[in-house]
Amino acid sequence: EYVRLQCEMKMTTAIKPQIQAFLKGFLSLVPRSLVSIFDEKELELLISGLPEIDIDDLRANTEYVGYSPNSPVIQWFWKVCSEMEKEEKAKLVQFVTGTTKVPLEGFGSLQGMHGPQKFQIHRSGGADEDRLPSAHTCFNQLDLPEYQSIEHLKERLLYCIREGHEGFGFA
């Protein structure tokens, strides 16, 4: 209860006048009826647009745990990523990092919970074809099971980023 109240105070109550001023200005430009149909992630994409995701930069700034850059699953992962549409790439970045925004300096400047934190791919369990990839947005970490085919990896990864790219919020 204490943590919830502290979060509420720091993220809403303490900055209520600034939030109200922003909303007043924003809603003077865009009617509430047009904004209310979007959730926060859709609104972020609508305002900011789709970012340019440089897969080569992301790959160059990725760390591996339990895999190596030459592991078949990792090779398949990057092939699938390179074939993704712009929106799918943005959703992948959002799924793993919590935002579609790319640092101005590129993925080498990606921030995590405690400062600079590279994109990470961790081996998750064994060869379990039924497991879905999962993510830890505070650590820019993708937990990727050891799939036995590129087709299965692609199907499971796309399912996750299409259905689970929003992560979690404060309840």
Question: What key phrases describe this protein's structure?
Answer:
171 residues, alpha/beta, four-stranded mixed β-sheet, two-stranded antiparallel sheet, 6 strands
Description:
- The chain is of the alpha/beta class.
- The chain contains eight helices and six strands; from the N terminus they run αααααβααβββββα.
- It has helices at residues 2-11, 16-29, 32-35, 40-48, 55-60, 72-82, 86-97, 150-163, and strands at 62-65, 111-112, 115-116, 119-123, 134-136, 141-144.
- The chain has a four-stranded mixed sheet with strand order 1-4-6-5. Strands 2-3 form a two-stranded antiparallel sheet.
- Strand 2 (111-112) and strand 3 form a beta hairpin.
- Helix 7 (86-97) packs across helix 8 (150-163).
- The longest helix has 14 residues, at 16-29.
- It is elongated and about 55 Å long.
- The relative contact order is 0.13.
- The model is unreliable at 167-171 (pLDDT under 50).
Structural class of the secondary structure composition?
alpha/beta
Query: How many strands, what sense, and barrel or not for the largest sheet?
Result: 4 strands, mixed
The overall pLDDT, averaged over residues, is 88
Distance between the termini: 12 Å
Number of strands: 6
Q: From the alpha-carbon coordinates, what is the Rg to the nearest angstrom? A: 18 Å
Question: What's the helix-strand series?
Answer: HHHHHEHHEEEEEH
Helicity range: 40-55%
Shape: elongated
